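Good morning,

Both structures are done.
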Amino acid sequence: MASIGEILLNTLSADQQIRESATTQLETAANEDFKQYVVMLCQELNNEQSQARIAAGLALKNAVAAREATRREEMSARWMNIDAATRDQIKALVLTTLGTQDVRAGIVSAQVVSAIAAIELPQGQWEGVIRDMLQNLSSTENTNLRQCTLQAIGYICESIDRDILTSQANSILTAVVQGARKDEPSEAVRLAAIQALYNSLEFIEDNFKREGERNYIMQVVCEATQSQDVEVQVSAFECLVRIMQVYYEMMPFYMQKALFGLTVQGMRSPHERVALQAVEFWSTVAEVEIDQENYRLEAIDNGEQPTHTNYNFAKAALPETLPVILELMTKQDEDDDEDDWNLCMAAGTCLSVTAQSVGDACVAPVIQFVETNIRHSQWQYREASVMAFGSILEGPSQELLVPPVAQALPFLIEMMNDPVIKVKDSTAWTLGRVSQSLAECIKPDVHLQPLIEALVRGLDDSNRIVSNCCLSLMNLADQLEGEQGPDSPTSHMSPYFNGIITAMMRITERNSNESFARTSAYEAISIMVTHSARDTFPTISALSTSILDRLEQTIAVQNEIVGVDERNSHMELQSNLCSVLTNVIRRVGKDISPIADRIMTVLLQLSTSASKSSTILEDAFLAIGALTTALESEFARYLDSFAPFMFSALSNHEEHQLCSIAVGLIGDVCRSLGSASASYCDNFMTTLLQNLQSPVLHRNVKPNILSCFGDIALAIEGQFAAYLDVTMSVLAQACNIRAAPTDYDMIDYVNGLREGIMDAYIGIVQGLKSSDSSLLAPHLPHLFEFMSTVYNDPERSDALLRNICGLLGDLAESFPGGEIKPLLISEWVNQCLKEGRSSRQNSVTTREVARWAKEMVKRATM
């Protein structure tokens, strides 16, 4: 039998059969005797003579670590089931291997140490691992041992919860900073130390708050940016980026004394990776200051004293940083891959966020750059000028931007004829930004025809620019919608609608989806349809026929598809077609009736041919939901044929998004059919209640189910009495779910759940209003208690406040004779309605609902 070393080497073989056989042997060994398996791997990793050391270390790491949470828990349990003596033996060997002569094996050992520590430290085990490694750093001249130990510490800091390591922060920081000093003779050790410092920045908060320690840390990092080793420079700038994100409030002194100069110098570095990180530093400054300003304004709106300070570093540095950023935007080649992140892209992104941060201050110098270079003989400068112009259209005031944009628009349209594809691509992107943010600069009688002609020509150009041309046309459709919205008889876009749709349909006929050209065209068609005026309906009618033809063709060839890539492309095509069809149905409403039978037939065929886990079912269901809303009661003729698909989706708990869409379809059906849906409600309610009890179904579906109860009650009105008690019991249970103050994911979930509960209560109250509201009486005390709890929760959303106000109004209207006066005169009710009416933070809709509710409550308590 082959040795463990031979098997490990075989996993690296170029022969697929040998490689797969070796992998199977390793999996079998792990399953048969995991303890012996990891011991063998550890010994092989520790063996200085073995050629399979790296493979052994990687196999050992993969035996105890995984990305997926479920798999990670399984591996953790399997490791902890090994007896303590054996685990200690393995850990000792791995720590010893950190000092091996083969630094590659030492680095893999560092990963193994981190993987084991990630399992044991949270369980109170191996608490001496950091202490033991710090001892390595202070008592050895072995450079490899120091380098790999620092890497292990860095990996542990990256993967372990900060609270577990806080007590050892001082020791870790001392060792890491010691290794990162400029007089460290080994650049490899210095690099590992800087990377470990990066990973430890969050849990050394207390150290960073102390000025003396902070000064020393900043000195060490700043000195590292001047290292002769490029990797150390890159890591040092990465460290500065992270420091700015985490400790912005403490940066004024260092920005003035060192960081301004160091980072501007870094952006000019001949080494692209160094320059990229220096540019990223200023992008981060701008992003943080945007957040700081938002926090400050939010506090002022709330009548509170701002606790966040915006030091305006980006604005202060603008005279130094902006010329460098603009220069870097010219650094590109025609052969650059559009998917590769490079210095030109980074600079463009930096300019965009800087404009959002500093506002008007960037306009004049950028406009000067544009005027100088927009007709430059070198295409890189033309492209940079157009990109720079587009990058500042969000942030500065509209008043300042309108004149230069209006002046530049004819030049931009003309530049869509530039011979260089990259220039045309950036021009199309900039035109999209103009049409999105400054559409008032586009005068329909002057600019619209040449602009649309240029964009349509672009659609027939390289796939690379199609997406941005489509984006521009989508924005134009949105911004130039008719004055009466969907009811407009015509719009500025109507004369061009047929030509645009025809051009985009040509794009969709291409065999490939290179640069997402085909997907962009389908998306643009959907948006064009959504914002179309009524005089374009003949074109939309012809479009719907073409889409149905294509869908039928895709179904006909479904069984001929072979290969994963071809199948994925086929599914994407069907998804795009369904999306267009959905938007057509939503746009024309009842006018879809003449072809409704054909649409439903195609969608049912699509549902039949799709696999259980296919996302096509989701797209088909969304189209059916739109058809349900459009046809209203006429949809009843399709329900018996469609119901099996809907109930199958409701039972498919593993595909929770599909299940959620199916829940929404129940609401669509009930709203459309009204009381005629009552005969289906027994099955609807039974299935929905079963789903609420499912331990497998994703929790995000459950708020939608609760909301659906309201749709059902609103549709069948008094007939909902048969389900009232069980529904109110389920809602009462859901009302008890709370979130910890620091569990932000749970806070969002609870807010969503409460919105679903409120939707249910509103539907039930409104549904029973016309029959017998007295059925609600036993449930009202709990209902008011729940509303009070939600109102007094500081994390509640504007939507929840609006729903509380609306429900109070509905209840007051349902009990106008003073029956619930004691509940309605509660102090919290008065405060809630007052806040809903008067707070500037609330939406207009919330204020209107609160005013109406106030009047209803007043009448019910007179």
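Second structure follows.
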Amino acid sequence: MAPADPNSTGSTGGGATRDQASVKVPSKDPKKKDEKKDEDLSEEDLALKQQLELYVERVQDSDPGLQKAALESMRNLAGEIAQEYAKRQTEEAIIDDLMELVGQIVAFHMKHNAEPEAVDLLMEVEDLDLLVEHVDNANYKRTCLYLTSSAKYLPGPDDMLVLDIAYTIYMKFEEFPRALQIALYLDNMQYVKQVFTSCNDPQKKRQFCFILARHGITFELDEDMCSEDDEREGLQEIINNIKVNEGYLTLARDIEVMEPKSPEDIYKAHLLDGRASGGGSVDSARQNLAATFVNAFVNAGFGQDKLMTVPSEASSSGSSTSWLFKNKEHGKASAAASLGMILLWDVDSGLAQLDKYFHSTDMHVIAGALLGVGIVNCGIKNECDPALALLSEYVDKEDSSIRIGAIMGLGLAYAGSQDEQIRSKLTPILGDAKASLDVIAFTAISLGLVYVGSCNEDVAQAIIFALMDRSESELGEPLTRLLPLGLGLLYLGKQESVEATAEVSKTFDEKIRKYCDMTLLSCAYAGTGNVLKVQHFLGQCAQHLEKGETYQGPAVLGIAMVAMAEELGVEMAIRSLEHLLQYGEQNIRRAVPLALGLLCISNPKVNVMDTLSRLSHDADTEVAMAAIVSLGLIGAGTNNARIAGMLRNLSSYYYKDASLLFCVRIAQGLVHLGKGLLTLAPYHSERFLLSPTALAGLVTLLHACLDMKAIILGKYHYVLYFLVLAMQPRMLMTVDENLKPLSVPVRVGQAVDVVGQAGRPKTITGFQTHSTPVLLSAGDRAELATEKYVPLSPILEGFVILKENPEYREDH
């Protein structure tokens, strides 16, 4: 039955109401109750109303041709209503009669599978709440899909409102995993709690915990969310990400890549012509340092390698120490820390194996061991806080390298946790007049990581004072630029919340004022896709400056950070960056490859690969270095053969240049990250959610790469370990209700965007069927190829719990 005119005396049955509705078009009977109502309407509205009633009649007609015509005219009517509404809003006229029409049209659209039209109309008249009444079991999924997809293109605060409605609808239909995702997208912890309290199924709660763990936030369950102590402990363990190590190793065994790889296996020097494989002229300490990083990246998380963890029977004196001492001074710090990377996520054996370095007399080795402890604990929370216990006593030591090791270790281990103890430990260092600049810079970054996206006033103030205390000469140092970045990370993705701090930054010394402004803006709008901000950054890059201006670097990175939110933005940003390459000054050209690396991280797009390949032979060595590292970033963890080939050729091209060769080696290590099982992409859950800690780690590395020579090729090469924050297994691991791995067939293919399409379109294309666990590349989506099990999460990524389908029958 059509939504009959609500003013007609509706006590009679449906048929009567319809008769009245149809009679009413011609009649102007003065005795009608509606007489008065109709006189309130302007002529235009009367015409609209009569039109609507005619449509309603037609749509109920049994003739399908008429129905179609009515649907078309409904669409026109919706457009006219939107215009009329806008007109009345400006004149501040009454809109009640319009809203009544809107209600009828929306009800009509929702019944006739035209959810996008209904949503669009309600957005126009600013009354999305109406939607919640009209959705039903048949159309809520499509409606919410449209809402969440359109949110990316709406200006604030509308985008948040739209997602709020989607959350409400998902909660109404108990589609909890989707509701949880929206809660995380909105960064609304109240909503997250609500999802836990509304759901009574313990298995589903476990699935929520896996989603939270993947997102990398710290979250404490309380009595309301889970009443039973044992069950709550189990859930908290999942949130604390304890399971990731065994899941990752299960995947590695399944794919049969447990065999440790040496750096030589990656370089594949035998495939090159004669000249480069010798590499005689190259400084050997730098080569060994490169091999240390390659070894760490390739064997990350596998717990064994051929340099650091060689078992003692290989040589009685223990050969792992001998590799350590093939590195010079600060190189030993990175070498010791690489052990932490190899034992990534395996806290118990990681701490046991790092223990031997704490007894060393060499300051750099101890510093590396402290950093290693931070790396092992990265992304894993632990009830007994081993990282804090081990590292806190070293934070105030004399030696600056030990201090940096401990501070950076704390930053990695507690990223995103907003831990008060860390704040009270680290903030005093920022105001310490005796602390060296590098210690202060790393303290700011670590505080930024621990309080990422929290807008914490106290930390912000401490970093601001530290910036104001710097002398003229210090402001010119490359490391000083990490201070504004630490400040920016506090506001990562928080948009307007940064404004007060941005105002304060305008009072800084003019040497760093604009740099700070760009960094703060780029962090605050990271992942929002805000077009106006991208234009603002492009405007900053268009200025042709005197030498010595550095603020355009963060502006270029800002374009990538803001535009990475959705595919269209990425394509447009890549095009804009091409223009900057052609017309920009040198300092801009140096940042462009890094921005491209962030836009396509772990997603080697051919056009970007070609651009970077061209830039890797650039006349300016800084541009070439940035391009080479970015080749590593876009291919990170993909084992991409084409990039691997490019890098091999570059290694023979630059065989005499130690610095460039070092960059090539780092890139080779990244391409084979975790033997191809890891990804650095900060987006997950079908590219809907952005993990703040992962993005923070990437951005920190990229800012350090803006001045390669001083930082990565200087003595701070361990900033490369900030990437550990973004490393995640790119797997789909299906487990049964006891969380034991369960192998089922799944189809993996390119994801297809099905927003607003009619019927039940296929969500993936060009699929292959594999049995789990499987690897997912960028833009891949998986779906179960069996009906025997039902997944507890609609998005098949990471750990997914399957329960048996009660309606499944073998052999029909």
